[in-house]
Amino acid sequence: MKALILAAGFGTRLLPHTEKIPKPLFTIQGRALLDITIHKLLDAGCSEIAVNTHHLHTKIETFLNSRNYPIPVVISHEQEILGTGGAIKKLASFWNENPFIVINSDIVTDIDLKKPYTFHLNHNFPVTLVMHDYPEFNNVSVSKDNFITGFHNDENEASADIQKLAFTGIQVIDPIILDFIPGHIFYNSIDLYKELISRGMKVAACISENHYWNDIGTVRRYQEAGFDKMAPESFRKAFPDNADGYGKKINKVKIKGDGSDRNWYRLTSGHRSLIMADHGIRSQDSTTEVDSFVSIGQYLHKKGMPVPEIYLYDTFSGLVFMDDLGRADLQSVITETDHTDKIISHYKSVLNLLINFSVSCGEDFDGSWTYQTRRYDKNLIIEKECRYFVDAFLNGFTGMDVAYKNFADEFSIIADNALSSATYGFMHRDMQSRNIMVLNNNYYFIDFQGGRIGPIQYDIASLLIDPYVELPLPVQDQLLHYSFEVLSSKVHIESADFFSSYRYCAMARNLQILGAFGYLSRIKGKTYFENYIPAALKSLKHILNLAGKAKFPKLTSLIDKL
Questions:
Q1: pLDDT exceeds 60 at position 84
Q2: What pLDDT, in 10s, does the model give residues 441-456?
Q3: Pick the CATH number of 219-323 from 3.30.420.40, 3.40.50.1000, 3.50.50.60, 3.30.200.20
Q4: SS3 assignment, position 330
Q5: What's the whole-number mean pLDDT along residues 205-215?
Q6: CB distance 188 to 94 below 8 Å
Q7: Quick check: helix, strand or coil at residue 354?
Q8: pTM over cut 0.85
Q9: For domain 2-215, which CATH number applies: 3.40.50.720, 3.30.43.10, 3.90.550.10, 3.30.200.20?
């Protein structure tokens, strides 16, 4: 048995994603769909496979050349796209006297390809199309004795004698049909089958039932196919004690996210649940947010850190399945806590974890896992925090017309001092109360994709000046001194260096917070972030006072006007 995988198409409905990656190389559970299809053909007993190429053909060819399949996989490159019929004709010398399979490269299915091939061998008609009932695509007319009678806009309507079914993209063909296909031109297989039918020849329909099938022709359908495949497997991995009982019926409910563009879902099956993050389809070749999320998350979990376990992921589709850590975050817990002593107790517990987290994970952290920058450095502070504050908050949110260069020297002082006396370790970079989940009196860190090597003082500052909670200044001060005690018990650090770096890290973090709130409320339309701007401004004024107004006269004067 030989086969042709149709992989030459442009994937126009998946633009702009198919501008760089051809549709057959889109992945499902980390595997290229083309590879999945080849293995299905291998399982069916295929002895040789051809793959036609056109759009982004070198990427498909590079992929195939990197594989080591146990049978020949031949590339049939089309200088001009030829259509299904033209692709079959171009491979005339490839076929032998036996029927062959032709399959679309953009379908995800568990149909056993042996069955339609065996079905075809047991009749005397030149073509078998594998059909099924799929209302969205039911546009092929099939007679009650299972023969194709018309396509798409043909006059045949569903009746007692005719039913409308959908073509699965799988067909078995006798080599005799090559005589009916013109050479060296674009030719559609539907035109071929209409021609055969008009000549009184039969096109058989092999009706498939009780199977999974999807195509990935659109973003929605691609991500739906990824979810359908990965969600049940995630439940089996997460709950192996009852692997057969979970994942068969999965309910998906969107949950509120925060500042990012990701979509979050709670998945439930029985009384078990998982969280799925949808980062969106990959848009670049370099490291992306989802790459960092997976790599850093897996590293932290292996180190025994309190983070959700990631069970399954696909970094091209952007889907990641992980532990459900409940609905309570530190912000909600603190908001419902009346006693200062209890609040301090919560924060001391978190600080113990945070500092252990930072020190332990800073030792062998791999900077290649990060996106944007490998380390927290001066350029990042200047561009992603100081300039962000000017562009997104001062100019974008308040409507001021402020030139960054007027404050460049003061921003440079902030960056230099934040780094010069810092204690370095793993830095979460968004260590605030909404990124700390509380479950069964335990604390877990989430949203770690921005992690990198940087000042431990930055994460401590992020936690203590967090505008979502707005800890009283005396409580902040008490917890800051507690942080120094804990950190100094683990690494050698001078008191003056610790507190100096803390103040400047707090300043940089505060600028970043205001930039983010301005951007999210004005550009992203998430206006609820405006509620926290007064607390962030109050915090920034306090930190500037601690650092000394004389060092930052321009910035202090500006902030005092807000």
A1: yes
A2: 999 999 999 999 999 9
A3: 3.30.200.20
A4: helix
A5: 95
A6: no
A7: helix
A8: yes
A9: 3.90.550.10
